[in-house]
Each structure stands twice: as structure tokens, then as C-alpha cells.
Amino acid sequence: MSAPTYDKLTAPTTGTRVVLPTSKFPDDPIVCLLRGDGIGQDVDGVPGITTSAVRVLDAAVQKAYGGKRKINWFDVHAGDVARSMYYPEVKDEQVGKLSEEEQRKLYIPDDTLKAFEYYGLGLKGPLTTPIGGGFRSINVFLRFRFDLYSCVRPVKYYKGVDAPNRNASKVDMCIFRENTEDVYCGIEFKSGSDRAKKVIAFLRDMGYGPDVLLDSAGIGIKPISPERTKRLVRMALQYAVDKKCPSVTLCHKGNIMKFTEGAFKDWGYEIAKTEFRDHIVTEDEVYKDFGGKAPAGKIVVKDRIADSMFQQIQLRPDEYSVVATPNLNGDYLSDAVAALTGGIGLAAGANIGDKAAMFEATHGTAPKYTGKNMANPGAVLLSGVLLLEYLQWFEAADAVNKAVEKTFAESEEIAKSGSGKKLFVTYDIARQFPGYTDKDGASASGFADRVIVNL
């Protein structure tokens, strides 16, 4: 593929393009950077959370490798920032009248698509959900366009963060959510529409009467295939092998949706037994053949029904390490697990395919804090850690994780010594300590400064 030409972007003059898949990454990869909207963007010299996070990541790479490695960031644009840059003449009241493709171009310019397609790696701050009714979501569009089929969400507890669940300190799991199937395909038909009537008529011929399907119903279709299930579970299992995790849990609602979510479970076990047999043992085998105790060094593959899983993560979160699940379950589950440990403000995320990977914060743009240097950059920063791990720069990734944990822990110790002192954490964490308010927290850039000190 030849290097693309751009309308409003200037490609980096240094750095190496990463061609995925690869087993060896260059020491100077080019990574697309979408700073984002709201708290993600820089305003009049005031840094947004993405800039603060990038500063920490660069410092960690410098610290770990002494200049031998470096990420070359390529600023590209999406969301409101892109719209104001490429189509400033389009007013809000006009957006809904545009076609879906025209709305897409407003919020994800062709420049950005060409850049990400060519360079394959990206770090993204939060983006505004488009106003128009036709174009659903920037994130969903990118996932489908580049086949980023696995949403990877590691969640762990950081000492010093006030968490609502007494078992929060036991949380350390990674959720693999299938990104390209399930109800997120958007195959649905509006109540009363001609297309809905055609689908209902077809289902009537299939034997589904008005006792289960009313003529007035809106219709949604939930596809789940063996191919896309297996590649998602394969990635989850490989992660468990690489990280030496104790278990992989297939989370599903197969007791009701037998041929979609039930099949997801069956296909998951199939890939585990055929491709990872030397590394795994099923939970049934543990009890049948090993007296209830897993053999040393084996990953236990098990499954849980989704509603039970939501209870289990609160009562016994330490029993779950890696979770693989269909799209909708994963959406709910990943936010729920994040809530156990203090909320999505520290929830890292990645959307990974075979030929591209985008690392992103999972929270919104919080526009009321735009340009105030207040918001917590932790989610973007920890998503950047996932990028470092993806590049196999484990020393730098580990350094950031330890520095973040130390920053939270030392603020907790300061807070325990009495009120009225300045903390190193941002306002959202500071106000959780007794006797402290949001005014006692550090700025976003101040938090980044402290993390860099703790590197």
C-alpha cells in the first residue's frame, strides 16, 4: 500500500509504519493520535486529558529505554474537532438532513480513515456522539470499518481509589467483548414500517404467532457466527496463556438464546479444546478428573450465564480473570466491573483486530470541564499502557502502572493524615476522601507531573 495523500493532514517525517499483523515492532512506530472532544482537546494552551496522558507515556518510554525507542504521534481528527476543521459551514440544524455517509464525513473525515488504514495503530480520547439520527457512533463505525473485532477492557483495583464494593480490592480481570456481531450490527426495523411488516410476515410463515410477536413490534436481529466467535475467544485464550492467567470464563445467555449465545459458549469450548488443549482444562474436567482442584499451570475454561455473572463479579470477583462474551453482554459487564473499582474514569480500553488496533478511553467528553485542566486523564493513560503492551514494550507499561498506583497510594496516605492538604490526584478522586473536596485535588497536568515523578 502506498502512502496516502491528505487534504488537511501532514504525515510524520520520522518514524516507521507498523504493518499488522507482526511479531516484531519497530523502535519508532507511528501511531495515530485522536485527542478527542471536550476534556480530550487542548483549549487555548490548556492541555486536555489526552495531552497529559501522552506526556506520561513519552516519559515512561524515555525512562525505560533511554532514547532507544520512541512513539511518533500523528495528530488526526474526529468528532466535533474534525467537523469544525473540515466542514465549519454546516450548522447543527442541518446535520439531521444529511445522509448517513455525509454525517460520517462530518465526524470522521476521509483523511482520518486513510491515516488509520495506512498506519494501523491509534490512541483516542473521548469523542462526541453525532447529533444526526442516521450515523450511530464514531466508535462503532471504526470498529466495523477496520474489523476491530475484540474490545479489550482490563479492570483492576488501585489502592487509594474509593470503591463502592468491599470486594473491590480483589478485582483484576480482563474482559474480551466481541465487537462486530450481536445487536450492535444495527439490523433492526422500525415499528410499523414496511420493512418491519415484511419481516413479521416472514416470521408468521415460520410459525411465530401473535402470542410471541405483535404486528406492531419493532424488530431487531442478533447474528452470532462461529467464525467471529472463535477469533474472539482465541484472542482471549492467547492473552490468558501469555499472561499466565488462571481462568477464562465464557459469559453468555445461552439458557434462553440457545442458537446465538448458547452457540457462542459451545464454539468457545471448541476452540479451547482444539487449539489450546495443552494449556487448558475445562471446569467439568477439574471436578470429574482432578478432584475439584485445577492442575498446576493449567488455565481453567468455564462458562457462566450472564445474569449469574453480574452477581458473581460482586461477590467473588477474584474467581474471574479473563472473560470472553458477546457484544451486548460485554458492554454491560465491562462498565459494571469498572464501577466496582471506582468508575469508568480509570477504565482503559482497546479495540483490536488482525490488521489494526485502536486504544481508547471508555468515558464521555464531559463538556462542562472542557479547557479547565480538571478531568482525570487516567483512562486515556491506562489505554496508552495497553498500547505499550501491544507494542511489547512491557518495561514502559509496567513503569506507568506502578507510578499510577504509587500516586494514588501516596494521596491516600496524605488524606489519612488529616484534611486541608493538597493531594496529587484529580478532583474526582480527591473528593472521595473524608474531609476533602474537589478543590483539594490536583489539575490533570499536575496529576501527570506526579506520575512522571513516580516513574
Task: Provide a descriptive summary of the structure in words.
By secondary structure, the chain is α/β, with parallel strands linked by helices. The chain folds into three domains: 1-160 and 342-455, Isopropylmalate Dehydrogenase; 163-177 and 225-341, 3-Layer(aba) Sandwich (Isopropylmalate Dehydrogenase), CATH 3.40.718; 188-222, no CATH class. The chain has 16 helices and 13 strands. The longest helix has 23 residues, at 394-416.
Query: Helicity, in percent?
Result: 25-40%
Main sheet characteristics: 11 strands, mixed
Total strands: the figure is 13
CATH superfamily of the largest domain: Isopropylmalate Dehydrogenase
Query: What is the name of the CATH architecture of the largest domain?
Result: 3-Layer(aba) Sandwich
Beta-strand percentage range: 5-15%
Give the integer mean of the pLDDT values. 94
* CATH fold-type name of the largest domain: Isopropylmalate Dehydrogenase
